[in-house]
Structures are given as C-alpha cells and as structure tokens.
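User: Just a sanity check before I run the rest of the batch. Below are the structure tokens for the first item. I only need the designed sequence back.
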C-alpha cells in the first residue's frame, strides 16, 4: 500500500498496544459446539455436513439439510415410541413411562413429519 501524499485531516490515534505482536486467531475445533452450531445455521444435514448435492440453489440445500435433520429426529422419536410401547406390552409396570409420554412422543413425531413435508416441498 502506498503512503498518502497528504497528511490526515482528522486526528488519528493508534491503540495503546499497536506495537505489540498480534495474537494469532485461535482455530476452532471442527467438532466443537460453536463450529457445529455454525454448520447447522448454514444448512448442515443430519451428519453435520452441508447438503451433498451442489446443483440446488443455496436456499434449497438449506431446506434439504433441515429436512434431513428432521428425518433423523423423527427416527429417534419413533424408536423411543416403539421401545415405550414394547415395555407397555411386555415389560414390568415400573418400567412403563406412562400414557402422557407416549402421547408426547407421537405428537413430536407428527410435528417432525410436518416439518419434513414443508422443507421437502420446493418453493414456488
């Protein structure tokens, strides 16, 4: 960069630590909380990676990544629901989680299914 020919017209103050060596930026752990949260905000799929197809527009890749995450959540919810139902039928009474928990898991599954349907449908 070249030095300006004329001095600044306004007062210019250097910070007190201007001659101190700059601290190198810390590298973020790619598996850390903030890095993962950043990837989720950018449309990461359930595996934490961006949507693999590169031909859709960025907004569409985000929608597909959101749908993929919802599918993974729905799978976990349905596994919990199935385990709770099997315990209700075959397990000890002390192990049964209760009707309210079963209803909550079913409602969570319905909500995730609605999210998946919304995110899979292309914007018109």
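Assistant: Here's the designed sequence for the first item:
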């Amino acid at each position: 960069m070249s030095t300006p020919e004329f001095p600044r017209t306004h007062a210019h103050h250097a910070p007190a630590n201007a001659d101190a060596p700059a601290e190198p930026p810390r590298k973020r752990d790619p598996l850390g909380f903030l890095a993962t949260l950043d990837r989720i905000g950018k449309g990461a799929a359930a595996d934490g990676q961006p949507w693999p197809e590169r031909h859709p527009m960025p907004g569409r890749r985000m929608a597909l990544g959101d749908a993929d995450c919802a599918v993974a959540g729905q799978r976990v919810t349905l596994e919990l629901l199935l385990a709770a139902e099997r315990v209700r039928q075959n397990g000890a009474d002390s192990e049964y989680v209760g009707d309210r928990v079963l209803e909550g898991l079913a409602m969570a599954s319905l909500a995730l299914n609605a999210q998946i349907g919304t995110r899979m449908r292309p914007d018109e």
